[in-house]
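User: Here's a structure from my thesis project, written as structure tokens. My advisor, Dr. K., wants to see whether a designed sequence matches the one we expressed. Can you design one independently, without my sequence as a hint?
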């Protein structure tokens, strides 16, 4: 098993509670980008996306068996992929990602001009250019209109359905602070003596890994977001959503992840 950015929806397994939390696939991402969109949003929510290289799966309807009229339009696929980028990246990141994407798409279109992939390459360039003119992070289309997210609202904890996994000894977690454990994908804090809290390791702003825990907050090294060690709520932006809560407990002299 290893961590990846996204996996194909044709061979995907998703935890039911996480799928409900993310409100499922975005219908506007079909065809061609629904898996990228779902995995990207899952990562921003603090979940892991993993692949099992030794797994073997048989797809019920192979793409090679579809008729010519069933093939999705290359331009539509390209536009939806660009749309996912605009939706999932923060505005600050889009300021350099969009110009870079336009340049890269143009180079790709030129390189593949004499090949059979020229149509798809030019479709990608056209989609990137069109979306760049309206660049800006889009609101998730499945979300109902609202006045905006509530700062500091944390994501619900994951139900304990697996055997407890040891994280660290109690003495390794400082009172009034905490530690990041990348191998367990968890941040463990101890706001007060004997009180332990667990949170996801991923910043909800742009998907960076959190590090370190200092001055009473869990900090993101990328854009400066800070979260409270007590409940994972946002203390300082640009993040607007609190950290994913992970269930931890004390087992003897060790902190375990449930």
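Assistant: Designed independently from the structure alone:
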């Amino acid at each position: 098993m290893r961590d990846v950015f996204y996996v194909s929806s044709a061979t995907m397994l998703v935890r039911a509670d996480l799928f409900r939390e993310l409100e499922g696939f975005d219908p506007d991402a079909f065809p061609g980008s629904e898996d990228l969109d779902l995995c990207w949003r899952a990562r921003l929510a603090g979940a892991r996306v993993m692949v099992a290289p030794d797994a073997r799966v048989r797809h019920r309807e192979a793409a090679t068996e579809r008729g010519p009229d069933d093939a999705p339009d290359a331009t539509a696929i390209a536009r939806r992929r660009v749309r996912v980028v605009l939706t999932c990246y923060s505005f600050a990141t889009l300021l350099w990602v969009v110009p870079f994407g336009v340049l890269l798409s143009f180079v790709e279109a030129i390189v593949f001009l004499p090949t059979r992939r020229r149509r798809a390459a030019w479709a990608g360039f056209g989609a990137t250019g069109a979306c760049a003119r309206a660049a800006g992070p889009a609101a998730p289309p499945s979300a109902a209109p609202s006045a905006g997210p509530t700062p500091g609202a944390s994501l619900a904890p994951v139900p304990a359905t697996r055997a407890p996994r040891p994280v660290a000894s109690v003495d390794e977690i400082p009172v009034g602070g905490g530690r990041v454990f990348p191998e367990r994908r968890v941040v463990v804090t101890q706001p007060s003596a004997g009180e332990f809290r667990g949170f996801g390791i991923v910043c909800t702003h742009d998907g960076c890994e959190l590090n370190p825990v200092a001055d009473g907050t869990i900090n993101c090294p990328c854009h400066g977001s800070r979260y409270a060690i007590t409940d994972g709520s946002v203390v300082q932006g640009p993040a607007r959503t609190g950290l994913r809560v992970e269930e931890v407990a004390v087992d003897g002299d060790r902190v375990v992840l449930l």
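When you compare it with your expressed construct, this may help: The chain has two domains: 2-55+69-132, 165-257.
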